[in-house]
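re: ur question from yesterday

yeah so i grabbed the chain u mentioned. its 769 aa long if i counted rite. heres the sequnce exactly as i have it in my notes:
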Amino acid sequence: MPRGPVNGLVAPTLLADVLRGSRAGSVVRLEIVSRPSRRLRIVEYEIRAIGVARVGGGRGVGAEREAETSNQVSGGQLGNVVMAREISGPVTFTTAGRGVPAYLQDPSRWPLAGEWDALTAGAHRARPDDSGDAVPPYVPRDQDQLIRARLRHAAQTGGLVLVVGDSTAGKTRACFEALRTELPEYRVAAPTAGPDLVTVVEVIARTATRCAVWLDDLESYLGAGGLEPGLLAEFGRLRIPVLATMRHQQFDIFTTPGDTERAGTEHTRSALTGARVLRQLDTVEIDRLWSTGELQRAGEADDDRIADALTHHGPYGLAEYLAAGPALLQEWHRATRPGGHPRAAALIAAAVDLTRTGLTPPYTLCLLTEAHEPYLTAAGGPLLRPESLDTALAWASRRRHGATSMLVPTQDPDAWGVFDYLTDHTDTPIPDTTWHTALQHTTDADNLTIIGIHAHKAAPGIAETSYRQAVEAGHTRAMFNLAHLLHQAGRGEEAEGFYRRAIEAGHTDAMYNLGHLLTDAGRGEEAEAFYRRAIEAGHTEAMFNLAHLLQQAGRGEEAEGFYCRAVEAGHTGAMVSLALLLKRTGRGEEAEGFYRRAVEAGHTGAMFNLGNLLKRTGRGEEAEGFYRRAVEAGDTDAMFNLALLLADAGRGEEAEGFYRRAIEAGHTDAMVNLGNLLLQAGRGEEAEGFYRRAIEAGHTDAMVNLGHLLADAGREEEAEGFYRQAVEAGDTGAMFNLALLLAEAGGEREAEVFYQRAEEAGDSAGLDQ
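ran it thru and got these structure tokens back, copy pasting raw so excuse formatting
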């Protein structure tokens, strides 16, 4: 029985070789390993060869002919293959339960980058010129050099270049021009969905064709069965350059909703497999609004459309103006008025909000008809005298400015998409009826999970329902996201159950999050076990959290080891925490080294902490430099500490400026210290104002200091009041000062009481008088 690993699809020649040597009725088993996804399990296929039969003729004739050989593949994902004894001609395979389109299996049918078309790549149409060309001349963007440099690097080493921006910001066009300029001889593979992407990588690996992969709207490819961390690593191994775009709105959905905050840090963990991919990427941002340099370059273009955009774009970016985004948005909003197109506006609103729920387009006319009624009713219903459905659909789907329409036609003549600019520029709450409509019109577990992600913050009840429906279908990410939703809602026991189910299905982030939940519940030993399991699966955050847990438990040496592992994996927060641990154990020189590494990675807290360390070791000039860097990053404590440093160095005017900046940011101690600085400079009235502001914020030292100032100014009655406030707050110095004030005013008996209280509290100042 032949056995052997096969990379990706089973090559027809391999199957032919196996079948050719098989006897009738034999069973041939092939082990197929899908390398791009790096799955650990091996899929087995049983091929039953029904052989060659001799068919007898009449006596003496001796005629022979071959019967058809039917070979059935079972137990795997290739489906059924019927073939003759030797394979000739094209053979279509079935992968992951889907038919693989023929063009995906043949790289020679993929376009060359240098001959590709911008509209085919996904760039938005503009108003056609006199020749009918809907693609204006390209105006170089500020980020072009960065995009192209990264693409060249990806062509050498493999990897994914991601460009993020708003709808119609020009990101797709910038990427298209980069690909056409830098890799004109590369074939362009543009799969339509995640599973197709896996097939594309397998075909590239098998054929060794020089290809670039194009992923416009990356969110369509992320997640289980598509672009996962293992497949991302395969791009590097095979040196495949990948160029992708993503709208800010979608990027935020993958990296924000469904996250769990890590204890003690500002970072979060995502519920999505796709987010694990995004966290590995250094994105390039394309701004919606064009810079001065970009506008100057646009002015040099010889194109009436660009000249018109320069004149009229106003608060919009040139690319969005050229794509007619603002014009269509305004026309849609105006259509609701009486005498306008209220039903069309409601149809568009329904399509926009269905997209915002996460329900995958296209949408049938039946669905839009159902979903639009609440919008029409809310706008005024019959009072608006709405047009007929046919008239509304014709108006909503009519192309404007030669660019696009609000409802976008699809391959299905009875189904519609929506212009994504309208979706990205709508932020009104989605009605409950639309959420429920979205849930009622899908049973796909992936789509239900995405709806849950969209609803996670906006409509938690909808999110829970959506996740639960997906969980019933066995969807692992839905288990994790539902657990996280319950965790956030304080329903820890339920959350734990779903985390455990996700863990059983192999979800690494669930191991990490369950560790976090158990830590918060005081179940440290159990938490440690799950953190260790996540670490075995390569989870860097789990290394960090386990180190923190061990440090809190007094197991410093073990904690240091896990901090070091997290540092080796590039975890910036671990660098800072390790430095703190080393500093506390007297290893300041080592601590400084890790602080410096974190500073190089841009960690603001490390800049501040390194400044403190340098100041304590008498290196004030160096400390000042790091404090200033932290101040530039907006660190309020760094403003205060820098002011202290400058004040100690006699640079009062500079210190005052930083104290004031810290005060504007709400730093209460800065109010007191600025008061002290002003008082020393003879500006008592200003000092009093800042002391009073600090007192309003509950600062006890400010009560004592203001009492001093008032007493020195002869305002003893006011001073006494502030001293008494400080005494009530437990300030022993205030007890002694109040006693002095009372004694000078003739209240020796009460003064003696406060002297006694101060002495009992450990303030010996009274004994020195």
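noticed a couple things. Residues 1-98, 257-271, 765-769 have pLDDT under 50 and may be disordered. also Residues 678 and 684 are 7 Å apart (CA to CA).
anyway ttyl
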